[in-house]
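Subject: Sanity check before I submit

Could someone independently write out the C-alpha cells for this chain? I want to compare against mine line by line before I put it in a report. The sequence has 175 residues.
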Amino acid sequence: MAPTAYHDIKNSLHQLYLEDNRPWLVGFSGGKDSAMLASLVFDTVLSLTPAERTKPISVVCTDTRVEIPAIVEMVEGTLRQMQQCSKQNDLNIDVNLLKPTAEESFWVNIIGRGYPPPNRVFRWCTQRMKIDPVNIFVQQRLRNVSASLLADSQTFPTSAQAVSIAREKRITERD
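---
Independent answer below. Compare away.
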C-alpha cells in the first residue's frame, strides 16, 4: 500500500473515531488484510491524545479450533501483543479470542452429527463457527448499543455474513 493511501485511510479513521461515541468492533483473522486493518486502527488511536481515546474498541478473532498449531500460535501471539500495546498505551482497545460452543464445534458436527465436510454449496461451518460466536459476543458485550463493524473481506467473506450479524443485532435490540 502506498504511503499516501495508508495515511489517507488513517486520516479517515481518525475523523470517524472522533465523529461519534459508538463502539468499534474490529474483525481480526490473522491474515494480511485484517492485520493491516488492525494496524490502521492501532496507529489511529495512538495518534490521538490520551484525552481523546474514549471510544471503546473490541478486536474480535474467532478460533475455529481446526487450524494447525503454528497458525494458532501466531494468531494468539499477535492478539497478546495487541492487548499489551493497548494496555501500555491506554488505548481503550480490548482483544477477544472467541470460540464456538462445544456443541457447534467442527468435530461434533462432522463426527457426532454426520455433517459432510464443508464445501462451496454447503458451508455450514462459517455461520456456526465464526459468525455465531461474534453474535454472542455482540449480544453480551454491546447489548442494545449501536456499534460500527470494521472488517476485511476475509474475516467476513460475504456481505451476507455481515448482514447476518446486523440482522441478529437488530433482532436482539427488539427483544
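---
OP: Matches mine. For the report I'm noting this point. The helical segments are 3-19, 32-46, 69-89, 106-112, 124-142, 159-174.
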